[in-house]
Specification:
Helices cover 61% and strands 0% of the residues. By secondary structure, the chain is an all-alpha fold. The protein has one domain. Helix 1 packs across helix 2.
């Protein structure tokens, strides 16, 4: 399956809003503050996006975060 990245500015802005809301409200140890609850009670009323779109935004955010991190111990081929 081909990876889709947001092309449009409005999609990027929406994904950033979702990321901010998750950062403010998500707590993995409290069930009432899990990602699905944050979606149902915070994100859906504000943005009106579907649950599928919400999970797609989260996957894109996690992919961006994983590709940006560099290991300081990694040797560089070209400097």
């Amino acid at each position: 399956m081909k990876r889709r990245h947001p092309k449009h500015l409005s999609t990027k802005i929406s994904a950033e809003r979702v990321k901010e809301i998750i950062r403010e409200n998500y707590d993995p140890e409290i069930r009432a503050k899990c990602k699905l609850s944050v979606y149902r009670y915070k994100i859906k009323p504000l943005t009106g996006i579907s649950e599928r779109t919400f999970w797609r935004y989260l996957n894109e955010i996690e992919l961006e975060a994983s590709t940006v991190v560099e290991d300081p111990n990694q040797l560089k081929l070209f400097d």
